[in-house]
Amino acid sequence: MMPDVVRICLVLVLVSSAFLLSSRSLSNLVKNYQYQSVLLVLIATGLAVIEDRPLLFLIAALTLASKVFGLPAFIRMIQERMRIQQDIRFSYLHPTGALMVSIGIILLVYVCFARILHTLYAHNSLFFLGSVIGVSMVLMGLLAVCTRKMAITKVIGYLSMENGVLLFGLFVTELPFIIEFVIMVDLIILVLLTTLLTVGIDSSIEEYKVRLQKFHLWTEEEGAQ
Amino acid sequence: MNEFSILYGFLNISLVLLVSPLFMTVIKKVKARVQERSGPQFLQGYYNLAKLFRKETLYSDYSSFISRIAPYASISILLVAALQVPLIWVPSQELVTGNIIVFLYLLVAGRFLLALLGLDSASTFGGMGSSREMSLSAIIEPVTVVVFAALAYVMGSLSIPEIFRNATLQFPAFSPTILLLSISFFILILVETGRIPVDNPETHLELTMVHEGMLLDTSGRNLALFELGHAVKQTLLMAFLLNVLLPVGMVLDVSVSALLIGGFLFLIKGLGLCLVIGLFESSLAKMRFFQIPNLFMIAFFLSILTIFVEVML
Fold first, then answer.
1. CB-CB under 8 Å, A96 with B305
2. In a mutagenesis test of the A interface, which of B291, B297, B304, B306 is the best target, namely the one with the most A β-carbons within 10 Å?
3. Mean pLDDT over residues B231-242, rounded?
4. Residues near B162 by Cβ (< 8 Å), separated by ≥ 6?
5. Rounded distance between C-alpha atoms, residue B8 and residue B159, angstroms
6. Within its chain, how far is the Cα of A10 from the centroid?
7. What is the per-residue pLDDT across B170-195, written as a single tens digit (0 to 9) for each?
8. Most CB atoms within 10 A, among A137, A173, B44, B132?
9. Residues of chain B found within 8 Å of residue A99, distances taken between Cβ atoms
10. Min Cα separation B264/chain A (Å)
């Protein structure tokens, strides 16, 4: 029963990556990232039960705190302050093309991994599926970073890439807990820095403070009109 | 042909004709309730059909024999398609010759007749509707084929009764591939039956209409046949989703009690799916015409993913 649940979660994680490439509404994108992270929590918990590795419960708890609640809440706050609702601009590829490319990516990853990992995990298809989906997610996140124009959407692409790394880590290599923790800290810093850069990347230092005040990013006041 | 074939055909066609108008009405009712309106009565679909069957049929001055035969040909094609899709009873032997490929061709033939009808009356709206329908068809047909191919691959057969039998025997499967197929089929139902976000079946006035545009010059009995055919098509596609995802109540060994229970359970499952479709339609706005391929692409992506995952597992 538990391996079946993990398999279903794995496939849903990949589906959420596909929605990340095709969704135009920013609030949907953030929700999608949140659901993806919830699925990762379920996968980590399921694996902890299947493999009897209590450390994975810690990773699940950390993911729940940072990726399900922390980062999405922060991105939502930025989005509300900056009054961004949609990201309808794409570069290089539109959603239809991006989904076609992702089919190619999954096929490519499957073919490569079938040669490398299939003998290693011949007895357990779950680990093979997990590793293929993990790397596919990383590459689909990269595709989102390349095809999306807004910085805030690119950040969600990066976050999705990190979810792929975590998934791959869960199934193939056993990432030490401390590394997972440091990655989380990096992610939070990434989101903060990107916010700062997005606001003032094309400004001088003098103008920068004015722009920060305009969006009221660090105050409790309502966002700019 | 033996007595089982006749019984099977009679049961399938009767059931599909009986429940299809109800399913259409329930979706309208759900949408109305979401908008805080009372909506039509549950039997309104039957009353509308009865009224249309009694009304006079009018033809455009420019229409040819196509307008006269298309309604009968269309409903006949869909009833033949209905014979291929067991709703409640999956016979142990192949009582009707056919498979997924024949079923798809029958659906396409129905669509082709409808497009011809739209052009035949020589009205602007009809021609525009037909043009749009064919443009969408060119994109949706490959997706439909891939969705059904994924179903055949996962279930290991092209025969529809065999697919349903395998689904019944595997139930509850807890399989990711069945889940993915269900999402693809759900999108397919919306697209093939012209529902929001692809088309709006409620309106006859907007310039954006597709399906209704082709039927603007149809009246009386002909319109009733097309409306019924549309409802039958929706029920058949719903049956695919219901009998693969949730094959509860499917009858493998025929008996009167099993058929009654199976029929009742199919009705309940169908009403549940209508509720989901109604809520889904209410939560979305109609898509811009040139954004519709994005929706098809999601169904295509999920179907390809289904095949990949089935190979990997």
1. no
2. B297
3. 95
4. B155
5. 16
6. 14
7. 887 778 899 899 999 999 999 888 88
8. A137
9. 297-298, 300-301
10. 30
